[in-house]
Records
---
Amino acid sequence: MRNTLQLAALSGAAACVLAGPAQAQVSTRRDSIGASASGQPIAVLTLGEARADRLGRTMDQRPAILIVAGLQGHHRVGVDVAEGVAQRLIAGHADLLATHTVYIIPNANPDGAAWLAGVDGPRVESGRVPASRDADGDGRVDEDGPDDLNGDGLITQMRVRLPDARWGLSANLVPDPDEPRLMREAKPIEGESGQWAVLTEGIDNDGDGRFNEDGGGALSGGIDLGMNFPTHWPEHQDGTGRYPLESAEALALVRWVQAHSNIQAVIVYDPHDNLVNVPAAGQYGPEGRVPRGVEEADREYYQHVADAFKEITRMSGTPTGSTAGSFAAWAYADFAVPTFSTPVWVRPDQIRAEGEEADQGGGEADAVAAPDRAAERDALIAEGFPPHLADFLLGTIEQRRATMQQVESMPAEEQQRMMNEVMALPPALRERLMRAAQEAGAPPAFDDDGHGRDHDAGAQDLETIRQPAGGRGRGGGPGGAGGARTGASRAASGGDSGDDRKWLEYSDQQRAGAGFVEWTPVEHPQLGTVEVGGFVPGFRFNPSPEVTERLADEQAAFVAALLPMLPDAVLDP
């Protein structure tokens, strides 16, 4: 790390000395770091003491935190809360702003936010920035995006019963008998036969047998800012861009950050999390240099910060997912500062009750370490587990899921290296590790005689997870017959049905059903009668407006708690 994190405990005292007795004069400056693909300015707010401190340091020279929100266009809550945090820091924390600077980029992807808001079209759950691609190779771009078939102003899903084989749609789904609004994969072993395909709402506009493959940035095409940064860039996944930093937004952000060496920590408001679930330590990329989680030396610091965060927010569960190619991964591994990600808001069932102890949190993703965790970890390493596998074994189910998703995004040779490492373990240790993986939802990795599963079968399993249940078939692949994989498509296509059921319960019981569009028949020009419905775009990422004030209070309190923990490069008398 560029900063020695052990200095953090001393920085608070140093800050008090530098502040002096004078009343702080908090200044707010608004600049632009660059422009979006459509030319919209990307604003940055600078909060801090207007005058130079006793060492002559200006706002852009004092230790700083950077807050970035809005990278994923469908994560509107991050934008709103970032703006609220700025207001609260100015009003209530002038003392901290006398010795530190806070940079806030409230909306790093204004074009993506426009998709969710329904600017110039129906509302779409897409975090991407516009980028025209000729995905089907027909010499045209943006000619076959999603379509609002039922006229409700939303792009949701459509489910098709027994689709004609000429469309190449995989009809491997059935309605969940416990919750018919959700779809799941059929279970042939129980006598079920799949009859339904699910894909993004739309028609075959260009007559090539594919649906929604050339949309320019809605649910097909475009660049996902969660995957366009250089660190562990997932080259072959849909939405990653043709090369790292292809998007104007990502390039502008990196250039601006690199020009501000006073930034000592980064907070990212997006669907990722590393505060409720602290990343595993000691895992690296293929060359053994770039960390995939956190450095071993940073583990204790991250846990300390995470404990403070969970005490303030009472979060006990968060979404999981790969951070490969994310801004947070780049800020930590390449810019080399502590970087913390939070979705800001989670379902009410993922929040501890008032007064409930953090280590007794109700969510299964509660990542507070037991008092003897360090000793248990040392014991596992002594048994023969590599440190990163020991961390995996001791992690919560959510942490293990997150690690497995990171592995899925690794190059094939790196996955094989890790598999070889697992196979080299003694049988008893290997069995224990596999059992932990299966508890987190992994399919059995070995057959009864200990041989690995067929590689092609494993690859197919991963592809099934990544693609919508509309199938790959003719025109398959990203943006093919089933359209691009999105959060909206998971809603009805056999994703995590347990989690989707919780979202439905939340919608029904606390939001008066506002989060789900009931399935209704619609005549489709190519597929005949289809049913359109699914989760409302953005519903599972953004709360009702009245919650935003509380969230801004919490995040401002976290920033205020983190600022004194920052290392300060000036500690000499």
---
Amino acid sequence: MDPTIRETGIWKTTVVQLACCASVYECPEVGDYVERALNRGSWRPTIEYFHAVDAEGASGDRIELACRLWTGFETPQDHRAAFEQLLAVCATSVRDTRNGARFRPTQARARALLAWMLWCTVDLEAADSAFTAAKHEPRDGDNEREAPPELRRALATLHRAASFAEEAIALGLPSFACMQVAVAHAAARRRFPAACAPDARDAFPALAAFHDRLALAPIEAWMPFATGKRPVRAAAVRVCAGRGCDIQETPAWPFSLCCGGLCPAERKPWYCSRACSWSGWQDHADDCRSDEPVSGKGKGREERASSEDDAERARKGMALSLEQREADDLKSEACFTAITKQTQSIRAFRNFDTEVKESIQEYMASAFRIENMKNRAMVQPMLKYWP
């Protein structure tokens, strides 16, 4: 792992939340486990303690201890011990069949954390470099080149992480970590097509469903890369106005949904204006979804007048849309200023009070619709607090 991540403290305060679930509010007990473990300071769990809590059936405590080992990450032995304990949690059978549903969230969270751990150990940049170097090596006759060992190991690890993510999804946890593993797995297969096994969509149908519903660019922009690089906010996804496409922007979700190339429309959606593609296209959807813009050529006087009225209404609508976006900009800046003052001494998102949580949610919803680079840059400081 890159030492810059360990030194910043971001890893110890937020990564376990991201690994365990999409939000700590979905399963707050995991956040409590991690917080207690982190606050114990010099306390070090032992393998004997793992066996003791396992005898009592406290699988949640085992997740806590594994998180403590993983977040410390001081030695390779810690990493292996944490991984082995989480594997044991996943392998543990449900002891009480009458309350089997009670154990499913624990099993799902353990698998999601395993998927996250495996994904974080993959150095895609090293694999990419090895693959690039191998492409320029001379061939012996017509024999196919074998994939470099670094690439084979990276793909095998991603494949295993995807299998854990698939199991977590099957257990009812469509977590943020599972999305990250799915995207990384698919991205690696697109990056190294000559050295990949069969397509991930065939091997992992549940992960394929994530790719069908979510755009790749926004998710990649939010992935805290294990290489230590700061994530870059990708351009916001526009609303699809294609004929027959029912996928629209959903501000309540962190990632704006789009058709992702799966729109049933037979042609590329046409927008009457750039502003229309961002907001307000429902008001004049007939114009937006036509192959060509409305024109008065060849029409009678009444039809031309009607077209002019429609055009005037469209211009007014675009003006109102621009005014609304400017108001959103000002509102976002005010929210950002208020949030920044209250987040100086807060370690993670789950410690915010209710008012600040609502402000962040309101700010993030509006920030996704902002075009100028200044406000895009304002999103960056919030990445480490947003689950």
